[in-house]
Design goal:
It is globular and about 50 Å long. Strands 1, 2, 4, 5, 6, 7, 13, 17 and 18 form a nine-stranded mixed β-sheet that branches. It has a seven-stranded mixed β-sheet with strand order 3-8-9-10-11-16-12, covered by helices on one side. It has a two-stranded antiparallel ribbon with strand order 14-15. Helix 4 (180-194) links the parallel strand 10 (164-171) and strand 11. By secondary structure, it is an alpha+beta fold. It starts with a helix and ends with a strand. Helix 4 runs parallel beside helix 5 (211-223). It is built from five helices and 18 strands. The chain has helices spanning 2-20, 74-83, 97-104, 180-194, 211-223; strands at residues 24-25, 31-32, 44-46, 58-65, 87-94, 109-118, 121-129, 135-142, 149-158, 164-171, 200-205, 227-228, 233-234, 238-239, 242-243, 245-250, 252-259, 270-276. 23% of the residues lie in helices and 37% in strands. InterPro entries: Endo/exonu/phosph_ase_sf, Endo/exonuclease/phosphatase.
């Protein structure tokens, strides 16, 4: 019964998105580190940063699909994540006036990749870090059915042991039963992984709602020596019995991880604490 209801909801959602997709504007890959006055004119940016992302060899990473801030309580939940993390990776961030105001009042360095714009509001993935990234790049992959892009943000951060941490914040293609487009998006991330020799975190909403997707993700991560985080408390959001959100890592020591329930989004946040090797 639950699976049938989920399928009906998914069908209605896809039909609605297809009918409304014409109102959304699509652009080439673009990112911004100025949420107050975003331009999204550059696909990649570089900067000089001497500050390490970790705090005395410890690094806490949080991952959350914030559901375009549609649910009550998102500010409280996001504040909790930011207060307890050196790095927060958001998916489905909607650059509304309340979100701009929220970040304007907080320390930290935010970078957003625009997936698309609707009603003059940009939507996409967003990184919030304790220090600036040294290199950041935007990637987009278009959903085959609804024709709206999903975004990926690839960033590098200095660590206190002299290494550079590569971070991939991924919001995977959702409305596609076949694996062609899903694979193409993962290959975009794989190019960044292949060019990096140090520690890595790949995390986000992978939309792994069927076995074929999970197998594909696990295969690619294993090829680059990444392991999946295991949780002491695992309340990750699921569809058809499969968890949607994941954190994979390499070159770091996992200390602890948890995923707890929230009503502030249709996804539950996940958090992992690492120490440097």
């Amino acid at each position: 019964m639950k699976k049938t209801l989920s399928l009906i909801i998914a069908f209605v959602t896809v039909a609605g998105l297809i009918s409304l997709s014409w109102i959304f504007e699509r652009y080439p890959p673009g990112l911004t580190s100025d949420l107050a006055s975003p331009d999204f004119n550059q696909a990649c940016e570089s900067s000089v940063s001497q500050q390490p992302l970790d705090s005395n060899g410890e690094l806490t990473v949080s991952v959350w699909n914030i559901y375009k801030q549609q649910n009550v309580g998102w500010k409280t939940e996001l504040t909790r994540l930011l207060d307890s993390s050196e790095l927060v990776l958001l998916q489905e961030a909607s650059l509304t006036t309340p979100l701009k105001s929220f970040f304007a009042e907080r320390p930290g360095h935010a970078t957003m990749v625009r997936a698309f714009t609707g009603f003059e509001i940009a939507n996409g993935v967003l990184d919030v870090a304790a220090v600036p990234a040294t290199d950041i790049c935007a990637q987009l992959t278009t959903e085959p059915l609804i024709r709206l892009p999903k975004s990926t943000l690839v960033a590098s951060y200095p660590l206190s042991n002299g290494e550079s941490l590569l971070v991939v914040n991924l919001h995977s293609v959702n409305f596609s039963w076949g694996l062609e487009t899903y694979t193409a998006q993962l290959k975009g991330a794989a190019k960044a992984l292949a060019a990096h020799q140090g520690p890595v975190i790949v995390a986000g909403d992978f939309n792994t709602w069927r076995e074929g997707r999970i197998q594909l993700v696990n295969k690619m991560m294993a090829e680059f020596g990444l392991k999946e985080v295991k949780y002491q408390l695992d309340e990750r959001s699921q569809v058809f019995g499969f968890p949607l959100d994941h954190i994979f890592y390499r070159g770091l020591h996992l200390e602890s991880a948890q995923a707890w329930q929230t009503q502030a989004s249709d996804h539950n946040p996940i958090q992992a604490r690492f120490s440097l090797m």
